[in-house]
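Recall the central idea of this unit: under ordinary conditions, the amino acid sequence of a chain determines the structure it adopts. In this exercise we apply that idea directly, starting from the sequence alone.
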Amino acid sequence: MKFKMLICIGLSMMLFTSCSEDNKDDDSLPFSGRYKFTSMTSDVAADLDNNGVASTDLMTEIPEYFTNYRTDLVVLDGFIKMASFSLPHCNVYFESPGIPQGYTIFTASGMSAQFKYNPRTKVIDLVMPENLNLSDYEEFGMPLKLEYINDSSLKATFYKRYYDYSTAGWKWLTVTAAYYKTADNL
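Accordingly, the structure predicted from this sequence is:
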């Protein structure tokens, strides 16, 4: 009788363990958490810091921004899956109106996007409003793509408007940013 009882308990434990493995949420995000920039580049060269040198490497154009801010991307895994981006926002102050001699202060500005994730293909699809208007995104930027690299690395692409001192005007840049995970949970 004790032997039958031990077999029943053993089978129950195996059944319980296998059920708990089968009931894992297939939609859970292995990459949810907090991230920091590893790189940030643009499609065309721009002089963002008014030093006379245009570059596509935005981290060298505005290094003080990247050393002063803490979290650059947060990926939330909840009922609504959300990515919240923090990008350098360009605040330009001119010493004389109409003359491109001035200074720029970069502050953090944010944008968010809902997304869907397919765990089999590891593809992230941003959910964007149907009637996109670029002017609606002028201040904060517009996310275009979020890519899964691995559980601790992501890559994102956006449009963002910056003041380019080499052309003395505002310019839309296609910005690509790479991120590494700094924390799993929020």
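The longest strand covers residues 102-118.
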